[in-house]
Write a structure and sequence with these properties.
The protein is α/β, with parallel strands linked by helices. The chain is 35% helix and 22% strand. The protein has 18 helices and 23 strands. The strands form 5 sheets. A 9-stranded mixed beta sheet has the order 13-12-14-15-23-22-21-18-19, sandwiched between helices. The protein is globular, with a radius of gyration of 25 Å. The relative contact order is 0.11. The mean pLDDT is 90.
Length: 537
């Protein structure tokens, strides 16, 4: 196959319909047929990346191996495809404009008036084709954020229109995801919002080739026929996407609807073979038929929005299926936890995860939670800030350093067991002080981490600013807080654990970013297994 083919996924009627899941499911089916497929996301906001966005605004910020802070949809792409994404897979309007303005300042446009068309649209088209240029992929799927008709999405829609024309017949297609609302009072599904959405798309010069219809009820043949006629698509290109009990069912549902077949036909590509979803369906089978069940406390400061901890929740689903265990996540707001109510709030849990985060709100609640897990031998996993809280708790309650703290919470603490590294202290850019992307970590022989990973060295993804302060390492180790993972280049501690505890692990990195359906993360798999053991005792 010589030319890369492009699929564009747009959304209409309302946001949050699941464009990312549809894009990931289609990619999964094409991959399962033997096509090398990748997905990218174009976000219409002006932030250069989601790194500085509040999780309540935008859900979690996902991090790639190469240190890109990206939209959480990239997490879905990796979980479905088991292929790492990169900086190139997520582009924002902010990044596009920044690039064009920098080019203008360098004089690259030779005195031309710089405009949205053609300069911004050319930049967008360039980035849309970036992943398809090196021959690594047969098919590139591009998800356009936002909803058709939004002012901020217009430059992307215009770029897609131009690109479809430039690529020529059979080299691209447009999937439009839309909502078919059900009016309970009338007892019927309504197609009018979808017709309007497709019309808006056509006014921008784009014809939808495939309609994916989100619905709570089955679409009748008559309704599909009506949609095909009024939305100007072929009858087989009207695809039903009904509510599913888990996102991992969607690839099977799209297979049944023939989404991949319709796409391949439009792109003039051979069907090759039937998609091989054997391992995927073994995972689904285990997920739906658990033999055990455990309750894990997710202690965080953004628990009111599920998407804030999206990758952690999905990692528990993968690890739960591996252990044939239903993992019930009990979200607990750390701000309202203290020494007086910890026992009451945490006593029914089989395991405790103290979640990542920034800033001092809810910190003391997290520290109290760590103490409870440590003293009561409850399986514990601390991620990023959660690991730092474990270091502070141990320093205060075992080493007796009552004022131990992180300089993030208290700049003047006499015992900064968590601190900024010297070289970071002069940097003022918010993103500049972050340790981002994949870093190496050497594991201590015979440690729990060593057994869990079954390796002596690992690569894990980071997203943090403050570090374990090595000045305290010796006294912490002597008291029983083992440093079992060390970064070989910086000497920084990446993993801590307590030998005498059934399962007490804190990691400075984010293991949840690397958990996929095909490769559930070993830390989560072991943690769930420890919870099952703890419960059965």
């Amino acid at each position: 196959m010589n030319q890369t083919k492009y699929i564009f996924v747009t959304g209409g009627v309302t946001s949050s319909l699941g464009k990312g899941i549809i894009a990931a499911s289609l990619a999964k089916l094409l991959q399962a047929r033997g096509y090398r497929t990748t997905i990218q996301k174009f976000d219409p906001y002006l932030n250069v990346d989601p790194g500085t966005l509040n999780p309540y605004e935008h859900g979690e910020c996902y991090v790639t191996d190469d240190g890109a802070e990206t939209d959480l949809d990239l997490g879905h792409y990796e979980r479905f495809l088991n292929v790492p994404t990169s900086q190139a897979n997520n582009v924002t309007t902010g990044r596009v404009y920044l690039s064009v303005i920098e080019k203008e300042r360098r004089g690259e446009f030779l005195g031309k008036t710089v405009q949205v068309v053609p300069h911004i649209t050319n930049e967008i088209k360039e980035r849309m084709q970036l992943l398809g240029r090196n021959g690594e992929f047969d098919i590139v799927i591009t998800e356009i954020g936002g909803t058709v008709g939004d002012i901020e999405s217009l430059p992307y829609i215009e770029s897609v229109r131009q690109l479809v024309w430039e690529l020529g017949e059979n080299n691209s297609l447009v999937v439009h995801l839309t909502l078919i609302p059900y009016l309970a009072a009338a007892g019927e599904l309504k197609t009018k919002p979808t017709q309007h959405s497709v019309k808006t798309l056509m006014e921008s010069g784009i014809k939808a080739d495939i309609l994916v219809c989100r619905t709570e009820h089955e679409l009748s043949d008559e309704l599909r026929q009506k949609l095909a006629l009024f939305c100007n698509v072929k009858r087989e290109a009207v695809i039903q996407s009904i509510d599913a009990s888990t996102i991992y069912e969607v690839p099977n549902m799209m297979l049944q609807e023939g989404l991949d077949r319709v796409a391949l036909k439009k792109l003039d590509l051979p069907e090759k073979n039937t998609p091989d979803l054997k391992n995927w369906n073994i995972f689904l089978q285990k997920l739906k038929n658990p033999k055990h069940s455990v309750n894990v406390g997710l202690i965080g400061k953004y628990v009111e929005l599920q998407d804030s901890y999206k990758s952690i929740i999905e990692a528990f689903i993968h690890a739960g299926a591996t252990n044939e265990t239903k993992v019930n996540i009990v979200s607990i707001q750390s701000e309202f936890l203290d020494a007086n109510n910890a026992q009451a709030k945490l006593k029914d849990l089989d395991g405790i995860l103290v979640a990542p985060g920034f800033g001092e709100r809810g910190i003391e609640g997290k520290i109290e939670t760590v103490r409870y897990a440590r003293e009561n031998n409850i399986p514990f996993l601390g991620i990023c800030l959660g690991m730092q809280m474990a270091v502070i708790e141990f320093s205060r309650n075992v080493l007796g350093l009552k004022d131990a703290n992180s300089t993030e919470m208290n700049e003047g603490t006499a015992n900064p067991v968590i601190d900024l590294m010297e070289e970071q202290k002069t940097i003022t850019d918010k993103g500049g002080t972050m340790r981002l992307g994949a870093w190496k970590c050497d594991l201590k022989d015979g440690s729990l981490a060593n057994k869990i990973y079954n390796a002596s060295s690992i690569m894990e993804r980071h997203r943090h600013r403050y570090e374990y302060n090595n000045d305290y390492q010796e006294s912490l180790q002597n008291a029983g807080l083992i440093s079992s993972g060390i970064n070989p280049d910086t000497g920084l501690v990446e993993i801590i654990e307590i030998d005498s505890h059934p399962f007490f692990v804190g990691v400075q990195y984010h293991p949840e970013y690397k958990s996929t359906v095909a490769n559930p993360h070993p830390l989560f798999v072991s943690f769930v297994s420890a919870m099952v053991t703890h419960k059965n005792k």
